[in-house]
Amino acid sequence: MGEEGPPKTEMINPALLDGVSANFIVKGPNGVEKASPMRSITVVIGRSDACEISVKDSSMSGKHAEISKINGEISVKDSSMSGKHAEISKINGEIRVKDLGSANGIWLNGERVEDVELYDGDVLRCGQTSIRVDVVGGRKRPDAGMSPKILALIIVGVLVLAGVGIGGGLWLKKKQQRKRDLATLAAFVGAAREGQKAKPCAAAVDKVADVARTLNTLGRPTCASAPKGEEARREVGGYRELAKTYDRIATSISQFAAQSSASAQALTGSAEQIADAEMKNRVAEAQDLVEQRSQVTNTFIADWKKLGQATNGYATALDQAFLQGNKAVCPAVDKGVQAKTAGEVLVSCNKNFDKAKNAVEEKLKELDEVAGGGSGEAPAE
Predict the structure, then answer these.
(1) Per-residue pLDDT tens over the stretch 288-341
(2) C-alpha–C-alpha distance, residues 271 and 275, integer Å
(3) What is the phi/psi pair of residue 117, to 5°?
């Protein structure tokens, strides 16, 4: 056999060798990860084949999501990304990310952003695809907020400290147990309050205004004054596009649901670590209220999905009545979309979320008084 030739050298823009550069760890919706270095000054992320991190529409293959390497670049199948979703570039010694006008936006460490600097360890989310950024020669984010995972570690750390005995095998005195209970309670309150910052209903406000304008343009079709030809096709297409819009809103809000779920998991088990029976019952009540708050977000998502399904069914009825001449479906056409309107969905979310959030806050105030007012003294027998 002939000798193998020398391995090919990967060409990287020389400007990336001076100062900071970056590596990307791309994780698609199915959990598969691929790593790729930053090979050029600008890296574009999106469904377009011209993007360095190219995301394919999953409907093309019937699969939910898939990550692969093509010609050394990362290719991800993710239908919730835009053609050119985001751009990562090196500017004046900084690694920055910018939204290129995507439909679902870009999310940095759980918060929506437009144009910001990236730090080592940051996690981007574009659609259902996450990208961890390792900034070579960079630094950690100086003002990083507490993520649900960090909050979980704080609680676990407090609980571990609470379990450390003064001496091996000796029973802890009531005063020491009281202090541990108060420390655990304070950590629980801090973690629960972090979850109070979420605003899932607000994510749909702009979309609802867009939907209202679209409905005004389409009008209310009826068989009595049935449109024909191009006008009928416009009505059918308009309602099908509305159905897709509702589905995209549900996907966007799911990010809030995932964040809320992670925060709730961080709180699970805290009550069992508290010895004081009354304090334990109060924490358990707070946990139930936090779960009710999370359910409001889940209901919000479900309402958008139902509206999307109902609107798509209505578009099918319009198609049969106006384009295929099937008069049997006219009663369904005249009834309109059988679901809550977009405005009703938003109003319901705001009302129920505020109610659940206020209930959580009232309970946290009670726990604040206990955690802040405790002297550390063991209660009298």
Answers:
(1) 898 888 899 899 999 999 999 999 999 999 999 999 999 999 999 999 999 999
(2) 9
(3) -80, 145
- The two three-digit tokens of residue 174, written as one number: 């009531």
> Strand 21-27 and strand 33-37: pairing?
antiparallel
* Closest-CA residue to 378 (of 137, 187, 182): 182
Higher pLDDT, 136 or 292: 292
What is the average pLDDT score of the chain?
A: 77
- Integer Cα distance of 148 and 95 in angstroms: 25
pLDDT at 111 over 70: yes
Token couple for 173: 């005195």
- Binned at pLDDT 50, 70 and 90, residue 10 comes out as very low
C-alpha 189/C-alpha 186 separation (Å) is 5
**Among candidates 107, 151, 109, which has minimal Cα distance to 251?**
107
Give tens-digit pLDDT for 53-95. Answer: 665 544 333 333 333 334 434 555 677 777 788 888 888 888 8
Residue whose tokens read 């029973």: 171
**Two structure tokens written together for 371:** 């955690």
Tokens of 140: 């950690």
Contact present, 267 and 155 (Cβ < 8 Å)? yes
The half-sphere exposure of 327 on its side-chain side, counting CA atoms within 13 A, is 2
